[in-house]
Write a structure and sequence with these properties.
35% of the residues lie in helices and 31% in strands. By secondary structure, it is α+β, with helices and mostly antiparallel strands. It has four domains: 2-99 and 266-283, no CATH class; 108-248, 3-Layer(aba) Sandwich (YojJ-like (1); 288-379, Beta Complex (RNA Polymerase Alpha Subunit, Chain A, domain 2), CATH 2.170.120.30; 381-472, RNA Polymerase Alpha Subunit, Chain A, domain 2 (Beta Complex). The longest helix has 29 residues, at 256-284. It is elongated.
Length: 475
């Protein structure tokens, strides 16, 4: 255990903590919504896809992978309004730090008093108290009102002489957002005959959303509460007040429901940490896999007055180790070998390659480096004008002799390290075969620069013209 803990970096702890908190916040914001249930199903689908891969079920894993790939697009398109509603209804504090437990957002007593006033007068009513889910794509929009949800205002909406009394009223916080709203009807065939269109509409809405609907029967004056596709008759105003408060999350002092919600939040936080820790462990501490990469060497922080004249290697071979999933996802551009030349001196320098010179993604570890050291030759660049000489090769015809040779230009300016140019007294051309010379003439010949670090100056020619005079030998 101590050996394992010694390998854990502070970055790993921060990685687990941050990702766990993001997952927990996702749960807080979207719990109870259709989006959360769908994503939970997709996550399970992804889990079984990994199981299918490990069991070698090729077709099954391929089909599951296809469904998982389009899941994000499906969620964004189908549930865009619900996602927008969840995010827009909260401020930054609620998104990043809030617990998601709702506070008092509606005048419950005014609602209860108005409902029972309508019940005593046998005036039908349909009052919608939304939950978390958006109603925009479910109901037919009514008339925007945004009036305060007072006792008198609620009674006025459902008064028989009001043109919108047959529709539903939708609450938003302490206001009546819309009136005359048309709700979707339930298609259940097992409803008692005592339930009319209002009850069927309330059932239809609560079957597809998490809303609560208060229904007052016009025939009997009975008050019913509809939620989760279930109709519950309400005995008195005390029960109605309690049920509405529970739906809104209104609490006065610690209640059983509040404690239960806090336990759920704590459990969700613990599960988030355990899940992300398991994922992190599987990625970074899974079955070790070895891989060898050829990586080019990058030289950084070189003294601008000096240039690299020569290096012993251009690439190094790295043997890397990590979990199979990380190694399989590793890209060559994620691995870099960098040598810091800030302390290098003029001449040949030897650098031993260590883990400090090698950049690796998290979870991938270095086993071996080949070669273990790199030799780099640095020098100060200078320019010199050096005479040019023809490099003859082979033998001339014995009956001929060269009387005169000229080179144009006879001196060429070259650039390179000061140490190299000090030892260079003559520039030679490419080899000129004497066997091909049978008469006087001229030819263009390239220069043969000795070390690779020496280059012809930009304004100088890389070829010279050789003019020669040939005569026959006298017998």
């Amino acid at each position: 255990m101590l050996a394992f803990l010694s390998t854990v970096r502070w970055q790993d702890i921060a990685d687990i903590a941050l990702t766990s908190y993001i997952l927990f916040r996702f749960y807080v914001l979207f719990r109870g919504t259709t989006v959360f249930r769908v994503i939970t199903g997709i996550a399970l689908l992804g889990f079984f896809q990994r199981v299918a891969v490990s069991l070698g079920l090729i077709v099954t894993s391929w089909v599951m992978q296809g469904f998982t790939a389009v899941a994000a697009l499906i969620i964004i398109i189908v549930f865009r309004n619900e996602i927008r509603n969840v995010l827009q209804a909260r401020n930054l504090h609620a998104i990043f730090w809030g617990t998601g437990l709702k506070r008092q957002t509606a005048p419950v007593e005014s609602i209860v008093q108005a409902i029972y006033d309508l019940s005593r007068q046998r005036i039908g009513a349909l009052l919608v108290i939304p939950g978390v889910e958006d109603l925009e794509d479910v109901v037919q929009r009514g008339i925007p009102w945004q009036g305060l949800a007072t006792r008198e205002a609620i009674k006025t909406v459902f008064w028989p002489d009001n043109p919108v009394h047959d529709g539903a009223a939708v609450l938003q916080g302490s206001r009546i957002a819309e009136v005359g709203v048309i709700l979707p009807l339930s298609h259940r065939e097992n409803l008692p005959s005592a339930y009319g269109t209002r009850h069927r509409a309330a059932l239809g809405l609560t079957e597809v959303t998490d809303s609560m609907v208060v229904v007052v029967s016009e025939e009997s004056g009975r008050v019913s509460l509809v939620k989760n596709g279930r109709i519950d008759p309400i005995a008195d105003n005390v029960e109605l007040s309690r049920r509405v408060r529970e739906h809104l999350g209104i609490v006065v002092g610690p209640t059983r429901r509040q404690k239960r919600e806090k336990v759920k939040l704590v459990a969700a936080a613990v599960c988030s940490v355990l899940l992300i820790t398991g994922v992190w462990f599987s990625f970074t501490r899974g079955l070790d896999t070895l891989i060898t990469l050829e990586v080019p060497v990058e030289y950084v922080k070189r003294d601008p007055k000096m240039e690299i004249l020569d290096t012993s290697v251009n690439t190094v071979s790295l043997q890397l180790r990590g979990s199979e999933s990380l190694i399989r996802s590793l890209k060559p551009e994620q691995v870099k070998v960098r040598l810091n030349l800030s302390g290098a001196a003029m001449g040949e320098n030897t650098f031993t390659l260590t883990s400090e010179n090698i950049v690796l993604p998290p979870g991938v570890f270095l086993d071996k480096v080949k070669p273990p050291a790199v030799h780099v030759t640095l020098d100060v660049p200078v320019a010199r004008s050096i005479p040019v000489q023809v490099d003859w090769a082979g033998r001339l015809d014995p009956e001929l002799r060269i009387e005169f040779v000229s080179v144009e230009p006879d001196r060429v300016r070259v650039e390179g390290g000061s140490g190299v140019l000090e030892a260079l007294s003559t520039l030679y051309t490419r080899k000129v075969p004497l066997a091909k010379i049978v008469e006087s003439g001229s030819m263009t010949v390239e220069l043969a620069l000795p070390p690779a670090s020496v280059e012809v100056a930009p304004d100088e020619p890389e070829e010279v013209t050789v003019t020669y005079t040939v005569k026959k030998r006298q017998k």
